[in-house]
Amino acid sequence: MKLILYSKPGCHLCEGLQQKLEQVTAIALSLEIRDITRQEDWFAAYQYEIPVLHWVTETGSIEPLPQLSPRGSVAQLERMLLERQVTGA
Questions:
Q1: 27 in the Ramachandran plot: left (φ > 0), alpha (ψ -120 to 50) or beta?
Q2: Residue 88's pLDDT is what?
Q3: Domain 2-87, CATH
Q4: Which residues contact 16 (CB under 8 A, 6 or more apart)?
Q5: Residue 10's CB: how many other CB atoms inside 10 A?
Q6: HSE on the CB side for 81, CA within 13 Å?
């Protein structure tokens, strides 16, 4: 599963989500981290929303994933990703 994490340097919530994603073992992940300070359109879209997680579908479209609470566990994150992978929606 390919994921895109919109983030920025110094964002502790972003770093926390990235660490949780790196601990996921129930599913193979490919994680692309996009620094929103590097592109104006990303910054305009996500400056007040980060961290924002999207997945790239098999057809190549990019779909947003629900925001996980910063207190959410790795197990909760895995369940959400597995459900998304199985249902494709």
A1: beta
A2: 67
A3: 3.40.30.10
A4: 70
A5: 8
A6: 26
* Extents of the domains making up the chain: 2-87
Flag whether pLDDT at 10 surpasses 90.
yes
Which amino acid type is present at position 47?
Q
| Radius of gyration of the chain measured on its C-alpha atoms | 13
The Cα diameter of the chain in Å comes to 35
- Strands 52-56, 30-35: parallel, antiparallel or unpaired by DSSP? unpaired
According to the model, what pLDDT value does residue 41 have? 97
Neighbours of 23 (CB within 10 A): 12
Count other Cβ atoms within 10 Å, centred on residue 37.
13
